[in-house]
Amino acid sequence: MGSSRDALPISVVVVNYNGVGFLDACLGSLKEMGAPAGEVILVDNASTDGSAAWVREHHPWVRLIQANENLGYCGGNNLGIRASSQPFVALLNNDTRVEPGWLENLFQELHNRPSTAACSSLVLLPGDPPRVHYAGSQAHVLGHIANLHYLQPLPEVQAKLQAGCTGVYVGSSVLFRKAALDEVGLLEERFFIYEDELDMSLRLRMLGWSIRFTPRSVVWHFAGTPGLAVRAPQPYPRLRAFLVTRNRWLVLLRLYRVRTLLALAPPLVLFELAWIMAMAQAGRVRQVAQAVGWNWRHRRWVLQERKRVQVSRTAPDSALLVACPLSPVPGLATAGVFATLRRGGEALIRLYWTGVRWLL
Fold it and tell me: Are 221 and 96 in contact (CB under 8 A)?
């Protein structure tokens, strides 16, 4: 893999769905990254663009696993994790390129900290200047991921970026300790994609594991998932509206304690009204209704999952959740009266959380 150095005890898993145009940059950067991984696994989610044949021809050193259907981010990565042969496993998006030192620096943050379950990289969006896609995240009380320095120009925030504990990892570049996954379980495949990072991060932290971020490990993230990604003003994707709404409530209903849900009922109701208004402005009310219907139809499974994950938790919600500013979504409540209402609402939620947190 382009290096004579000893391989790290890590399996790198890349999930691909019709992304043949991204794979040369991604796999090529893995081949030349410095200290090699013990293995690189590409899980192809039943692509129809010839991705599997292309990998066999151009990167035969990659271990290829072909799924029979599109399992999504969660199912595809779980397939790779189960097949991995190393005590650590890194998940990497197919539309990325890693910088030299990417894997070594993740491993350095993780392997000597036995209570740390995962570590994520600094993820950048290309441009002039580059912008921050991920530099640490928090689990917001409303059931969202709040990314720090999200979409800010890198030169403006680079001096502030330091390695340390964070609340939520990022799925585009994360290294896991497999012993932690053995304890808490793999990604919840019903999520398919979105909010799964929040779900897994909270499940890990509920059991006492910590999560770290290091800016010394750098990844460039390019296109995003076709039909789902939102990085510039454009119509909010229908499938994203459904998945984000459904999965956010899956996190709330499965992982939050009952007294937390009761304490947060006023801001949750207000936020839900604001979310419906924003989705109405984007023409996505139908997807919100479909998400509510999905959770109702699967209520028995949700309750069973809730019982399973709550019984073994050791950390209270007050230690896991924060009320920081939410990450802005391009084109959604970022200008005009909606932006003003969003900022005012964030300030009120912070004040409210300060008052009720001690009860939890």
Answer: yes
**For the stretch 299-338, what's the b/e string if a residue is b when 16 or more beta carbons lie within 10 angstroms of its beta carbon?**
eeebeebbeebeeebeeebbebbebbbbbbbebbbeeeee
- pTM comes to 0.93
Q: pLDDT per residue over 32-74, tens digit each?
A: 987 789 999 999 999 999 999 999 999 999 999 999 999 999 9
In angstroms, the CA 135 to CA 310 distance is 29
Whether residue 331 lies inside any domain: the answer is yes
Q: Are 37 and 90 in contact (CB under 8 A)?
A: yes
Give me 252's structure tokens. Answer: 């709330």
Same domain, 245 and 354: yes
pLDDT tens sequence across 164-184 = 999 999 999 999 999 999 999
> CA dist 287 to 101, 241, 340, Å?
42, 6, 25
Structural domains counted in the chain = 2
Q: Other C-beta atoms within 10 Å of 294: how many?
A: 18
Residue 17: inside a domain = yes
User: Are 201 and 253 in a shared domain?
Assistant: no
